[in-house]
Amino acid sequence: MVIDTSLLIYALVGIVAILTILIIRLELRIKKLLAGKNGRSLESTIFDIKERVTRLDTLHDEMRNHIASVEKRVKKSIKRAETVRFNPFKGTGSGGNQSFATALLDEEGNGVVLSSLYSRERVSVFAKPINNYSSEYELSGEEKESIKKVRG
């Protein structure tokens, strides 16, 4: 099988022409990329971007830690407050519904129950610590009801 040398020359010229066109396109793309800047300024731009990304990563970590600490504090803050009004002296005519029990609790059921017993002669106020919706002190029915409403 004999290959015609003129055909081979035309094929090589065609390949060289295609490669020349590809090189010219590549040169144009590089010039467009640099667009009036030199390679050194492009390198400094890349380093600036890298530095900014590093600062953003640091800021992101700081924000994540701050949000975690805020969430911890929010869990410990009072979430709900419920009040039950009642008359502790039913039938005697004194007091009315001026007495109350108020539960002030966080998400985990920790906080305090404040109770006030009102009569014409005096007012008594009580505070009982609450841990996990219960207290080591005996709770009245109204205090239990206010805790139940908060938990509700």
Q: Can you summarize this structure?
A:
This protein folds into three domains: 36 residues; 38 residues; 72 residues, no CATH class.
Written description of the protein model:
This protein has 3 domains: 1-36; 38-75; 80-151, no CATH class. Helix content is 52%, strand content 20%. The chain has helices spanning 5-34, 39-76, 141-151, and strands at 80-86, 99-105, 111-118, 123-130. It has a 4-stranded antiparallel sheet, covered by helices on one side. A hairpin with a 5-residue loop joins β2 (99-105) and β3. It is rod-shaped and about 125 Å long.
**Tally of individual helices:** 3
Radius of gyration: 40 Å
Largest sheet: 4 strands, antiparallel
Tell me the structural class.
Answer: alpha+beta
Mean pLDDT: 87
Unreliable spans: none
Overall tally of domains: 3
User: In terms of quaternary structure, what is this?
Assistant: single chain
Sum up the overall morphology in one term. Answer: rod-shaped
